[in-house]
Amino acid sequence: MSIKPAFELGIWNAWIFMIWFFLPPIISICGSKGKATSKRLAVSVPIKHEKLLNVISTATFVAGFIYSIFLLLQLGKVWFFMGLVIFLIALVISLSATFFVRTTPTDKPFTKGPYRYSRHPLYVAETLIFLSIAIAGVSWVFLLLIVIMQSFHIIYAPAEEQYCLKRYGKDYREYMNRTPRWIGIPKSEKSY
Q1: Is 91 inside any structural domain?
Q2: Transmembrane ranges (predicted)?
């Protein structure tokens, strides 16, 4: 890992990992049986300075995507294989979360699949994808982007949870009590 980021255009660059960010939303929107799923995913959660945060968050993602086009993956090295394993885990989390978003009735909160282990599995998957790129491309720039993106997750997650509490009430409160915000082992559903 050098101080000066490498810029080398190539087919085997980190963009291959970044392109997967677009797959789950496409699956959700194209595969939905109506507008309910796409509307459900496009809910705007009121956050102080929301427009500014959205601009900065989007700019960070776009900067990461553009840089990934020029970031050479360390093919054949242990870094690449470590990053690939993390990427595949993130991809499974992301695709399965997307599946449960599509199959959960609109009047119920998402509580199955990866949502059983995290209230925000898509944020976890996003962080893991950036981490996989940082490792597979040996890039301090992507490590910095992880810190920036995680800052947004920390701001957005509580606001989304407040929205879900208003929308789903007691069901979501019970879900929050047994499921960690980021990742972990869910508490028993039994009440004593």
Answers
A1: yes
A2: 12-31, 52-73, 79-101, 122-149
